[in-house]
Amino acid sequence: MSRRGKAKAHLEQFAGRVVRRAAPVVGKQVVAAKGAAMEVRGKARLLKERGKDRFH
Fold it and tell me: Which of 15, 55, 53 lies closest to 36 in space, CA to CA?
């Protein structure tokens, strides 16, 4: 299960990074902020998964 969680975290980070960088090009500042939030959520998920690995 941990591998799946890590993959989801990395995918969420990547998607957030892409949205954050592409949104200003088309003039969507709100979407850029949502992409940044998605990227942070992916980083938090990855930290959680790494923490679970340390105790299991």
Answer: 15
